[in-house]
Design goal:
This is Spore coat protein U domain-containing protein. Keywords: Signal. By secondary structure, this protein is mostly beta strands. The protein folds into 2 domains: about 40 residues, no CATH class; about 160 residues. It has 2 helices and 16 strands. The strands form 5 sheets. Strands 4-5-13-10-11 form a 5-stranded antiparallel β-sheet, with no helix packed on it. The chain has a 3-stranded antiparallel β-sheet with strand order 2-1-3. Strand 1 and strand 2 form a beta hairpin. The protein is rod-shaped, with a radius of gyration of 50 Å.
């Protein structure tokens, strides 16, 4: 019994030294006064003074038990959630495979045939025999963001122009050949998010440019160029124009 009391007192002293808040604090007294047994549990005030005085005077016994621990450093959180902000970026890009060197984009119609027979009616002489056509196909084209697809003829609605036509009767001859361009690919218009469908862009022979806005797309790309026969004779010489396809991320 004495060992229990001694251990309890030692524990109490240690907890007091660490300024811990007691979670268990028990004080019990028991004894006999003139043959009458008594007990007192957790007395306070005068009762505590009397019990301690009696114990100090050799009356009865005493038991104390104290336990405690330092509190949390801050409010406990049974559930904690932490959000991680993950960021990155993708560069805007447009691609068009146009062959491996400059010769791939040099489109030569060769000799544009005209009616040269001396047995042609004068109203047909020197006129184009048939249309001049070109087909251009790329297996890889597209943009990874909202973009515009634009076709532009350098000479505008004049089309192919003779660089040195000399002098001619403008009522019977002309020194230019208008042409039509039609492009086709698979994509989606801006403002929609859906599976790509067939898209097209046409520049008529009376126009110099045309454009259409697209959402991100990737597909094969085809262009057909058609220079229809004109209703006048063609002045001899070299005819040329520059057709520019522009894919521009916005």
């Amino acid at each position: 019994m004495k060992k229990i009391i001694t251990a309890a007192l030692a524990a109490t002293a240690m907890l007091a030294a660490t300024s811990a808040q007691a979670q268990t604090s028990q004080r019990h007294y028991a004894g006999n006064i003139v043959g009458i047994p008594f007990t007192s549990t957790n007395p306070s005030g005068l009762g505590l003074l009397a019990a301690e005085f009696g114990f100090a005077g050799g009356i009865g016994t005493r038991y104390t038990a104290n336990a405690g621990a330092l509190g949390n450093t801050q409010t406990a959180t049974p559930t904690v959630a932490t959000a991680f902000a993950l960021t990155g970026s993708v560069s805007k890009d447009c691609s068009f495979y146009a062959g491996n060197n400059a010769s791939a984009t040099a489109i030569d119609f060769g000799t544009i045939g005209v009616r040269t027979g001396n047995n042609e009616n004068v109203s047909d002489a020197f006129e184009m025999v048939g249309p001049a056509v070109a087909a251009i196909n790329s297996a890889t084209a597209g943009c990874n963001f909202n973009n515009s697809v634009t076709l532009t003829k350098l000479n505008g609605n004049q089309g192919l122009k003779n660089s040195a036509p000399g002098s001619y009767d403008s009522a019977q001859f002309q020194a230019n050949i208008p042409y039509t361009v039609q492009a086709n690919w698979t994509g989606t218009p801006q403002g929609t998010t859906a599976n790509g469908i067939s898209q097209s862009l046409t520049v008529a022979d009376t126009s110099g440019t045309n454009s259409v806005n697209q959402g991100a797309w990737r597909s094969a790309f085809a262009m057909a160029i058609t220079a229809a026969p004109v209703n006048k004779g063609l002045v001899a010489g070299s005819y040329s124009d520059t057709l520019t396809l522009t894919l521009a991320a916005q």
